[in-house]
Amino acid sequence: MTTARDIMHPGAHWIPAHETLDRAAQVMREQGVGALPIADENERLCGIVTDRDIVVKCVAAGHDPSRVACGDVAEGTPRWIDANADVNEVLREMQGHRIKRLPVIDNKRLVGIISEADLARHLPQDKVAEFAQGVYARG
């Protein structure tokens, strides 16, 4: 059985909800990623901020990213998956909620993140095609 842990990108970093978007952009650059899970004061997942969020929800809206907190752009209930979940559960979660990045949690701690690139590297083409159809197809 292939698990979330098997296909995740390990070592994902949290960014505190109170941290500013310009700092999030710096961390993304340093880590070579396009998204960061957002943690509340208890280090619990409370959202994800993406490079697109920074551009669309902040910069394009005329706001200063050094004055907007990461938590201010998080929307909805954050989705995550247990590290020991089967890869089919991962696909169901990502397709069912039409999300492209999924934090991986083990014992209430962030241990990694699964992105589209991780799916493409670790899954057969038919599974990747099924994922793309489920996430990108307009229904």
From TrEMBL:
Residues 8-66, 73-130 form the CBS domain. It comes from the Bacteria. It holds the Pfam family CBS. PROSITE patterns: CBS. Keywords: CBS domain. InterPro entries: CBS_dom (IPR000644), CBS_dom_sf (IPR046342), Diverse_CBS-Domain (IPR051257). The keyword Disulfide bond does not apply. This is CBS domain-containing protein. It comes from Streptomyces tamarix.
